Fold Aspartate carbamoyltransferase.
Amino acid sequence: MQLSVKHLLGIRDLSRQDIQIILDTATQFKEVLQRPIKKVPSLRDVTIVNLFFENSTRTRISFELAEKRLSADSINFTASASSVSKGETLLDTVNNILSMKVDMVVMRHSASGAPHFLAKHIPAAIVNAGDGINEHPTQGLLDAFSMREKLGRLEGLKVAIIGDIMHSRVAMSNIYLLKKMGAEVMVAGPPTLIPKYIQEAFDIRVEYNLKKALQWCDVANVLRIQLERQNQVLFSSLREYSLAYGINKQILDSLDKKIVIMHPGPINRGVELDSDAADSAQSIILNQVENGVAVRMAVLYLLSGGREMTN
């Protein structure tokens, strides 16, 4: 099984078949992760550098664990502790790392398009671990994997993405992927947090009423309010936001069906999700974290050429 791309820069670049291959390969790796010995030698001679120019805990740890499970040699690089803080350019940094004979770069950057820039200039395979407000492809893939695992399909599924759509790279990757796989997509939230062009550009539904969105969907993927990316006041207060768009057990119990609750993390508890909803039986948030490792193993394995998997 071969992907049609050399890099994973975004879901936008993947075909439906590419997505299918990644999700199916992740299923096999999830089985590996259930074994007493969770390590396979698939990437034994591959060197991967984790290049994080932006703070990350979950994504970085998930990639590191995926690399260890595949027996890859990994190097961790954080911009704040590097020559970047002394003025070194992105290309200089990467060329210096590549001179150490690195095969693959996992990269997170605050500038949209930074991984695409690198892919044009260096020979190593690039995995986008989040670029600005553009995309976060492995999060989109693990969300889709988690939905498929829980509900058995993506085709025809009704998915509401709720919250700060304007600043969310997770929302973009989810929209691209779900549309390609035949799901119905709605975005919901305050008008100030939903881009005006989105309905027409992506042919998706837009809803400003939380209860209506939840009543419509099979899955609610709830996003974090990204205050660090907002350069103007887009709603009056977190309390006001929580009252209008916060999801709690009371709202979930008032629906006439059980829906699945997801969140890419970290959760602002008491803002977009109350603890009683986040920790309820309807939530698959911890499954998403677990599935992230299997999905990232699949991506790294396939981009490295997909050699022997489980010897």
